[in-house]
Amino acid sequence: MQWSRQQLSILAIVAITSFMGTFLISSINIALPAIEAEFSMHAVALSWIVTGFLLTTAILLLPMGRIADLSGVRRVFKSGLVLFTLSSLLCAYAPNGNWLIAFRLLQGMGAALTSTTGTAILVTAFPPQQKGRVLGISVAAVYIGLATGPFIGGYLTQLLGWRSIFLTSTLLGLLVIVVTWRYLGKDAATAPGILRKLRLKGSLFYIAGLTALVYGSSRIPELLGWLLMLLGAVGLLLFWRSEARSDFPIFHTRLFTHNRLFAYSNFAALINYSSTFAIVFLLSLYLQKIQGLSPQTAGSILVAQPAMMALFSPIAGRLSERIQPRYLATLGMSMCTVGLAAFAFLQAQTPLPIIVGILLWVGLGFALFSSPNMNTIMSSVDRSAYAQASGTAATMRVVGQITSMTIATFFFALLLGKTQMEAADPKLFLQAQRQAFLVFAALGLAGIYFSWWRGRLDRQ
């Protein structure tokens, strides 16, 4: 079946936007040592350049998914794109580490608005039987961003400095804004006053709970850190209870309590990202601090994993249209788990070909998991809930990414304290990295369970 110009334009817009976010995340990971050197930041504060972005993204994904379903997904998408581009420019001129973290928080807000609506816009533009292939292309764009980010980010950092990464993101954002306003189109008129029916009280519990959890994790092993994490868990429980009782909720809890396919697929995504996202963060520091490689060389090595993701995600997406997605996703989750366990045994002098081999293995596993899993999530709800399903899936991704960074930060805080990475004992760094990867491998086992026992996808 031939795609129309409108369909191709929408696919290109969503794919490029998906590329932008992951390109920036992965390129900043490789630039962290350079940022640390300029602003004299310790390891825990440095991690907030990544975690802060993810936190504000996670906070807004759920409420904005519901709001977009009611007010118009294109309107929300365009607003997010403008905010993301503006905040990229602000990051490029941040005067110190605190301001950089603040601008990254703003950037995360823009990313939330595009992430929660992009997939919904995409699947409504194509017939149901083609969901797998277009989602596979979109996921491939995500991984192309991850693949090119370390290499281009390392090159830009080494040649022009880390600020050039944000300037590049700004220019790309301006280009996408022009294309979006020309080709995306507008939403249909919405019923007046529809948003006033929403109960936002539950969202306050969600925002407070998630913030307390993430910030508390950075204060562990202090008593304050544990107390904040406890309060965060209580806040999320109150959010669930409030939404379950609401007549017009921000988040439909019934999607989890009455739709096993949707619930288990989202749990599998949460666990997958929780166990794999910090790979680039940890290995970027490992390759530069322990093995003494340059940012450009380290980025060239780290490109192996997302390159496999980008290459095989469209293939896995198309296969999921003919094969039950849980078979592909479970195989992929199993491969990721094996690779994570292998990373736990890295030593100071581990040969680079072995590291590249593990990255290729994990990349293939992630590709086999991600596209079929997203196809399952979007196919398990009706059209009226597409933005909320997209927002929920994006929330699982971002909360998983936060969890992954939290686990890595926990072991850094426990073993390195507030020691700057330049002065950190290599043995303690390797010990912290080993413990983190062992936890990630254990999480992968739970991901295998949810991926397999989700049930069959009814393609009708």
What does this structure look like?
It is built from 17 helices and no strands. It is mainly alpha-helical and 460 residues long. It has one domain: Up-down Bundle (Growth Hormone, Chain: A), CATH 1.20.1250. α5 packs antiparallel against α13 (304-319). The longest helix has 35 residues, at 5-39. The chain starts with a helix and ends in an 8-residue tail after the last helix. The model has no long low-confidence stretch (mean pLDDT 84).
Question: How does the SSE layout of this entry go?
Answer:
Layout lengths: L4 H35 L3 H29 L1 H20 L4 H28 L6 H30 L2 H21 L17 H19 L3 H23 L8 H4 L2 H17 L1 H13 L4 H8 L1 H16 L5 H19 L8 H28 L6 H30 L10 H27 L8
Largest sheet descriptor: none
- Look at the structure and give the mean pLDDT: 84
Backbone structural class: mainly alpha
Number of helices: 17
Q: What percentage of amino acids are in beta strands? A: under 5%
Top-tier CATH class: Mainly Alpha
CATH superfamily: MFS general substrate transporter like domains
The figure for the number of domains is 1
Q: Alpha-carbon distance between the termini?
A: 20 Å
Note the overall shape.
globular
Low-confidence stretches: none
Q: In percent, how helical is the residue content?
A: over 70%
What's the gyration radius in Å? 21 Å
- Which CATH architecture? Up-down Bundle
SSE arrangement, N to C:
HHHHHHHHHHHHHHHHH
CATH topology, anyone? Answer: Growth Hormone, Chain: A
Q: How many β-strand runs? A: 0
